[in-house]
Design a protein that fits this description.
This protein is mainly α. Helices cover 51% and strands 6% of the residues. It contains 8 helices and 3 strands. Strands 1-3-2 form a 3-stranded mixed β-sheet.
């Protein structure tokens, strides 16, 4: 019998020591590469950008549907403010998530599933990983097979999901929420109990923390803003 790998403790990734070290590295990056954003910190993050977020502390809430809606509103306002110059917006979807590349008269749209906060962070993570070239194609030009993938398809899916879900993990923890990996294959017709996917995501997230220079540029910006809010 194959034993399922022990699930890693994602909640421990942003311990105080990790948090302080990571924030120092991200702060240095913002100073050197995004000085216009660093003024957010100098002028008090809450008063400078919260006027566009209503109440950034709502990012922490996950207690009821109304609070969830407000949390999503705050996240969307934060993202759409930070990346306003990149011709992209995050918008709710009533259906499944999809990315629409920009057109001559319309910004790119990152849509996320059914208005869920976790889905928004997941799709934003894919945008951060995609880079400028892939952002020119709908769904970033990625291959995707729906739930019910076979063993080979699932292995391919997990390979391309490790880095996005590692970023999603850091974003989620920065919002002081719990994180769980998603293998997104509930109807698999093969044994999945020996999957190392959760451990791979954990190791990638830890690698990002220990080597912040490897975090994609836009992910650095969003993670910095989310962590900055925790200082108030």
């Amino acid at each position: 019998m194959t034993l399922r790998p022990t699930l890693p403790d994602f909640s421990a990734l942003l311990s105080n020591d990790h948090l302080m070290s990571l924030m120092s590295e991200l702060d240095s990056y913002i100073v050197n590469h995004c000085p216009e954003l660093h003024s957010i910190k100098d002028n008090d993050y809450v008063s400078c950008i919260a006027d566009k977020l209503d109440d950034p502390s709502l990012l922490k809430t996950q207690l009821c549907p109304i609070q969830e809606i407000k949390s999503v509103d705050a996240l969307l306002r934060l993202f759409n403010t930070l990346f306003a110059k990149q011709n992209v917006m995050v918008v709710r979807s009533t259906g499944e998530p999809e990315y629409f590349a920009a057109t001559y008269n319309k910004p790119a749209q990152i849509t996320f599933a059914h208005g869920f906060f976790a889905s928004a962070l997941h799709e934003i993570s894919h945008w951060c990983i995609a880079g400028q070239a892939r952002r020119q194609s709908n769904d970033f030009g990625y291959w995707y097979a729906p739930d019910g993938r076979n063993h080979v398809q699932q292995a391919a899916f997990e390979r391309v999901e490790i880095k996005p879900q590692a970023l999603e993990c850091l974003f989620t923890l920065a919002c002081q929420r719990s994180f769980s990996v998603s293998e997104d294959n509930l109807f698999a017709d093969f044994e999945t109990s020996d999957s190392r996917f959760a451990l791979n995501v954990y190791e990638q997230a830890l690698n990002y923390i220990n080597n912040p220079n490897t975090i994609p540029r836009d992910a650095k910006v969003l993670l910095w803003a989310l962590l900055l809010e925790r200082q108030y």
